[in-house]
DNA sequence: GATTCGACGGAGCTTACTTCA
DNA sequence: CATGAAGTAAGCTCCGTCGAA
């Protein structure tokens, strides 16, 4: 798709900074071949200090009636950055990648999975919105083009009634009006008979004002890559 | 009040495994 | 015993939705 950016670019992607160490502040509890998270149970709920609360007051009143209020996890900037980076490389994760990423981010695999689900869904939504915008603009320009062509047809019809002379833009010589027509697809002026012009005007009306359904069925993804009018006639 | 985003449940699909004729 | 069909469980993605921030 030439018009729309591929992948997730429309959801702001920050570029990784070389030398980033994953969660340097996290205490290492094991020492096994450089893996600092040996004892971390990835299926455990993150520790309390991993939850970012909206305010300090929230933190203070975290235990009401012994039931910890359900807090919404906010990913840290680094976690988000790493997730975005992974998403840019791959929109889906295999189980090993998921596990590794979860370990790196100190999140549960399920959280990584959910993040990718949401990310896919939301980038798709963004893309759909962009396609919608593009179609609106395209439809607008086609409508305008149609108006213009209809006006031209009217003018040509009027000329047919009047003395049939048209001045050529190139040679400034008078041309017979019956020889001028425009191909609705390639917008090239061709020579046809007067009868053909009348047929063509009817076709033009249909061809340049696609309905919403035909437009959306055409568009998919590939149709957005190029204007149909550029096709060979 | 609107928006963002982490989380969840359910539907649908695929794959691996088991059972049975 | 080998084989193919049918059943089942597990795991995945997508979708719609909820609710905290």
Automatic annotation (TrEMBL):
CDD domains: homeodomain (cd00086). Residues 201-233 are annotated as: Disordered. SMART domains: HALZ, HOX. It comes from the Eukaryota. Residues 66-126 form the Homeobox domain. Its main location: nucleus. Residues 68-127 bind DNA. Pfam families: HALZ (PF02183), Homeodomain (PF00046). GO terms for molecular function: DNA-binding transcription factor activity, RNA polymerase II-specific; sequence-specific DNA binding. This is Homeobox-leucine zipper protein HOX3-like. It comes from Gossypium australe.
């Amino acid at each position: 798709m030439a018009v729309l950016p591929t992948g997730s670019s429309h959801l702001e992607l920050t570029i990784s900074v070389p030398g980033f160490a994953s969660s340097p502040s996290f205490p290492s509890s094991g020492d096994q071949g450089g893996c600092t998270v040996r004892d971390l149970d990835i299926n455990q709920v993150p520790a309390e200090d991993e939850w970012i609360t909206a305010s300090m007051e929230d933190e203070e009143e975290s235990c009401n009636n012994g039931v910890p209020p359900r807090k919404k996890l906010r990913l840290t900037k680094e976690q988000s950055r790493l997730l975005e980076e992974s998403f840019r490389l791959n929109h889906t994760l295999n189980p090993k990648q998921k596990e590794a990423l979860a370990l790196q981010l100190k999140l549960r695999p399920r959280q990584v999975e959910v993040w990718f689900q949401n990310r896919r869904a939301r980038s798709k939504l963004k893309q759909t919105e962009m396609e919608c915008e593009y179609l609106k603009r395209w439809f607008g320009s086609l409508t305008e083009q149609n108006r213009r062509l209809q006006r031209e047809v009217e003018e040509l019809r009027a000329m047919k009634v009047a003395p049939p002379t048209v001045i050529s833009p190139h040679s400034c010589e008078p041309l017979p009006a019956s020889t001028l027509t425009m191909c609705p697809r390639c917008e090239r002026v061709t020579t046809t008979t007067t009868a053909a012009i009348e047929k063509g005007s009817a076709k033009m009306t249909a061809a340049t004002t696609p309905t919403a359904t035909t437009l959306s069925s055409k568009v998919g993804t590939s149709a957005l890559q190029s204007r149909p009018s550029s096709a060979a006639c």
